[in-house]
Design brief:
Oligomer: heterodimer
Mean pLDDT of chain B: 93
Strand content of chain A: under 5%
Shape of chain B: globular
Order of helices and strands of chain A: HHHH
CATH superfamily of chain B: Cytochrome c oxidase-like, subunit I domain
Helix content of chain B: 55-70%
Low-confidence stretches of chain A: 1-25
Bound molecules: protoporphyrin IX containing FE, copper (II) ion
Number of domains of chain B: 1
Distance between the termini of chain A: 71 Å
Largest sheet of chain B: 2 strands, antiparallel
Strand content of chain B: under 5%
Low-confidence stretches of chain B: none
Largest sheet of chain A: none
């Protein structure tokens, strides 16, 4: 029997020793070779969302404020889709951990976006 | 001649690639190409090149390829620098024109950051990290090879621009409206955006790969707080990459859309917002400076401990400060554009947050000094770089604080003071750190040391050359000389300082020549490393023979202490003295694959086609990309076995097998 590439054997060994308790979600699962229909649909979905936004902008179908609100909604949908489908959040077996990281990501994103808006408002007294 | 041939000549070889410099370079490139092809054919080395290098997924070989690429790019970036400096020493008789000067400083900056510093970091990661944590490879070996080839073909795309079609000329920051197609037609900026987009994909993948590797591949017993410092900095740098590269990708892609498809994200008309580019660029750019400097911090933490023969002082404080730097470096980006005038509140906030970063950095400086305190210091080349780094980096940090003082920055922004500051941290910190690491791990990569006497010569030339070059630039900045000017009037009193600075640049150039000689000389005459532990090291990579066998560890070690190898040596253990032949089993290892190379090549074709807006070529490249990915996705035959007997034979040939 061949010793598997290290990350398989090590991770399994650790889980068995109970050293990594609380991290079972990070155990790799090999040998599941179902056809990834979810990802295929997710991919198609993300393309649809992208092109919907593009067409809305190019064809000027909506007044500016409505347009911005719609494409922002589409963007949030896109982000949710990416996280749900391609980052495998729903398949996780250790939701608590995932939530910590997801929270951190949201914090970073909100920080970057929020501060960028603040900066670009040009409430300038000096320029 | 048929008209399309004329069109091709006109597009690919316009006037500004037919200047003497470019024609000279053309000649050299073609000559060396011919020589290489002739040599490979004559020696029948094509097969070897393909099997052993181009298709490899072995992290050690990928590391060596990154290293070679980085040194080649250091050469090109260095030649660019000498051209710039020559011009500034001769203000009355400029050697290169204003437009060529723009192209050269753009290429210089872009190459040094993206195609010299980054690959040199990835070289050291690939060479050292898996060995340090007791792993047989990185988490995703095939992805690792893809990262390398995306980087390599991205670099190639940027590098051909100056002989085919014309170089980018808007600076490494590529601000609009300099990059707007209305002001800057021609392929140069397309090359810039596309090459960085392609190489950037590779970088992001490397970030993911090493994040997972350090988190999941450590040998049993190596808890987070037992990881070597270099591995800690790898982990944090990888996390920085993950968050920093998306804003860059977005900014580059939007700029490219503005140029190719007539969108107006950053244009001056149609409600475009050029300042948003600046915001996005530095949202990436400031974390980027820590992406390049944290690995250097990591190298120094290993080097200082090894050559002081003491454990690193204040390990937990070091870990904490690395984490603090990681978080804080996301909150400082506006200090690169205080003068944009976002308002006093914004500027005050970001001025303060910038100064905060100096605190964890200061902690690290003290810890390195205390590590040396009372240690038995060996002044090897790697250690000389460490000792030179401390005062140099402190001065660079201090001038950074000056720049972070908003009112002062209104005066100093974009002057030679700024240029001196960032070279101070980038050369004194990043380059010295990475060269230190290269000298330190060289025996592990190639099985022999680099000659120390020549290494020290190169070091002194670099170090002295550095201060002669950049010391005067602080003064020039204070005297009002702005960056990116190709000449200046004589009456300002800038000439003498500029001449000194140019002399310094040539001293550094001499340092590079000595370093290359050092490498070539040592290939043949360098002291061979038969023990695998030439420096009496502390971490696991030194427990292996140099160079390490393909599978790294015949048996994965169990770690019980922070400096794992040092601890084993204290207890009189080695990896070999308890290894008997029934401990060895057949190993499953990743198999070579042509996909990463072909994927990189396909992206190169896409990038080249898009640069000239030849959509048929883009389509051909895109088919290549999709085909490579599909083939890779359905290729389940990605492992090979290394038979236990082969491993036993290898280990006993190395004298590492008992009984
Ligand atoms: C205490 C630490 C540091 C402080 C307070 C600091 C502060 C600053 C400030 C305020 C600027 C903008 C100046 C201007 O444009 O007018 C600047 C520019 C720059 N810094 Fe630093 N810095 C620090 C460390 C570093 C490090 C470690 C690196 C890289 C390894 C670095 C690389 C750069 C670069 C590349 C630029 C200019 C880029 C450009 O405009 O092209 N800095 N720094
Ligand atoms: Cu910065």
């Amino acid at each position: 029997m061949a010793e598997k590439l290290q990350f398989q054997s090590e991770a399994t060994a650790r889980a068995h020793e109970g050293e990594d308790e609380g991290l079972p979600s990070l155990l790799p699962r090999f040998g599941e070779e179902k056809f990834p229909w979810i990802q295929v649909w997710g991919y198609i979905g993300s393309l649809v969302l992208t092109f919907a936004a593009l067409i809305l902008v190019i064809d000027h179908v909506l007044p500016p404020v409505a347009l911005l609100s719609v494409i922002l909604t589409l963007a949030v949908g896109q982000a949710a889709l990416q996280i749900g489908v391609f980052m495998h959040v729903r398949e996780s077996r250790g939701l608590a951990w995932q939530m910590v990281f997801l929270g951190l990501v949201l914090l970073m994103a909100a920080g970057m976006v929020g501060m960028s808006i603040w900066i670009m408002l040009f409430k300038s007294g000096v320029s | 001649m048929p008209s399309f041939v004329l069109y091709l000549i006109h597009t690919l070889f316009p006037h500004d690639v037919r200047r003497p410099t470019e024609l000279g370079a053309d000649f050299l490139i073609i000559m060396s190409g011919v020589i290489i092809v002739y040599y490979l054919t004559k020696q029948k080395k094509w097969r070897y090149l393909w099997d052993e290098w181009l298709t490899t997924v072995d992290h050690k070989k990928i590391g060596i390829m990154y290293l070679i690429a980085a040194i080649a790019m250091l050469f090109r970036g260095g030649v660019d620098a000498l051209m710039l400096r020559t011009n500034l020493a001769l203000p009355t008789t400029p050697v290169i024109s204003a437009s060529e000067y723009n192209e050269v400083f753009t290429t210089h900056g872009t190459i040094m950051i993206f195609f010299m510093a980054m690959p040199l970091i990835f070289a050291l990661w690939n060479v050292a990290v898996p060995l340090m944590i007791g792993a047989r490879d990185v988490a995703f070996p095939r992805l690792n090879a893809m990262s390398f080839w995306l980087f390599a073909f991205g670099a190639l795309l940027l590098n051909i621009s100056f002989v085919i079609g014309g170089s980018p000329n808007a600076g490494w920051t590529a601000y609009p409206p300099y990059t707007g197609v209305a002001f800057n037609p021609g392929p140069g900026e397309n090359y810039f955006f596309l090459s960085l987009l392609i190489a950037g994909m590779g970088t992001t993948m490397t970030g993911i790969n090493f994040l997972v590797t350090t988190l999941r591949m450590r040998a049993p017993g190596m808890t987070l707080m037992k990881m070597p410092m270099f591995v800690w900095t790898t982990l944090t740098t990888a996390a920085l990459i993950l968050f920093a590269f998306p804003p860059l990708t977005v900014a580059l892609a939007m700029s490219l859309f503005d140029r190719l498809f007539g969108s107006s994200f950053f244009t001056l008309t149609h409600g475009g917002m050029p300042m948003m580019y600046v915001n996005l660029f530095w949202l990436f750019g400031h974390p980027e400076v820590y992406i390049v400097v944290l690995p250097a911090f990591g190298v120094f933490s290993e080097v200082v401990a090894t050559y002081s023969r003491k454990a690193l002082f204040g390990y937990s404080a070091m870990v904490l400060s690395v984490l603090a730097i990681m978080f804080l470096s996301y909150g400082t980006w506006v200090h690169h554009f205080f003068t944009m005038g976002a308002g006093p509140a914004v500027n005050a906030f970001f001025g303060l947050s910038t100064m905060l970063i100096a605190i964890p950095t200061g902690v690290k400086i003290f810890n390195w000094i205390f590590t040396m305190w009372g240690g038995r210091i060996q002044l090897t080349t790697a250690m000389l770089y460490q000792i030179a780094f401390i005062p140099t980096f402190v001065i660079g940090g201090a001038t950074g604080i000056l720049l972070a003082t908003v009112p002062a920055d209104y005066q100093l922004h974009n002057t030679y003071f700024l240029v001196a500051h960032f070279h101070n941290v980038l050369i004194g910190g990043v380059l010295f750190g990475l060269l230190s690491g290269t000298y330190y791990w060289w025996p592990k990569m190639f099985g022999h040391k680099l000659d120390e006497r020549q290494g020290k010569w190169a070091f002194w030339l670099y170090f002295i050359g550095f201060w002669v070059t950049f010391g005067p630039q602080y003064l020039l900045g204070l005297e009002g000389m702005t960056r990116r000017m190709y000449t200046y009037p004589l009456g300002f009193g800038w000439h003498e300082l500029n001449v000194i600075s140019t002399v310094g640049a040539f001293i550094m150039g001499a340092g590079f020549v000595v370093m290359v000689y050092n490498v070539l000389y040592s290939l043949k005459y360098g002291e061979r490393d038969l023990t695998g532990d030439p420096w009496d090291g502390r971490t696991l990579e030194w427990a292996l023979p140099s160079p390490a066998p393909e599978y790294n560890f015949a048996r994965i070690p169990v770690v019980t202490a922070r400096d794992a190898w040092w601890d084993m040596k204290q207890k009189g253990q080695t990896l070999a003295n308890s290894l008997s032949s029934h401990d060895i089993s057949t190993l499953e290892m990743p198999k070579n694959t042509p996909v990463p190379f072909l994927l990189g090549l396909s992206f190169f074709v896409v990038g080249f086609g898009m640069t000239f807006e030849w959509w048929i070529i883009v389509a051909i490249g895109a088919i290549g990309v999709v085909a490579s990915l599909l083939y890779s996705a359905f290729d389940y035959d990605e492992h090979k076995h290394i038979n236990a007997d082969v491993i036993r034979r290898t280990e006993s040939a190395l004298g590492r097998l008992q009984g």
